[in-house]
Design a protein that fits this description.
The chain is mainly α. It is built from two helices and no strands. It has helices at about 1-25, 30-45. The chain is elongated, with a radius of gyration of 18 Å. The relative contact order is 0.15. Keywords: Membrane, Transmembrane, Transmembrane helix.
Length: about 60
């Protein structure tokens, strides 16, 4: 549960920082609303995505 909250919070903070840096002064209010709603949904779905890294360990004879 802690892992879910950490991943979600970090992704939401990053997306909110992008909004404040790039989109806050834009006059396209409909796009800004879409971005903010999308960022909430995206940040809640990020913890469910897993990426497996497969490492091959060489066999020594």
């Amino acid at each position: 549960m802690i892992d879910f909250l950490l991943k979600s919070t970090i992704s939401l903070c990053v997306l909110l920082a992008v909004y404040h840096l790039a989109l806050e002064k834009e006059k396209m209010h409909q796009f800004n609303r879409f971005y903010l709603l999308f960022s909430i949904v995206f940040s809640l779905s990020i913890p469910f995505i897993t990426i497996e890294v497969i490492q091959e360990i060489p066999v020594q004879y």
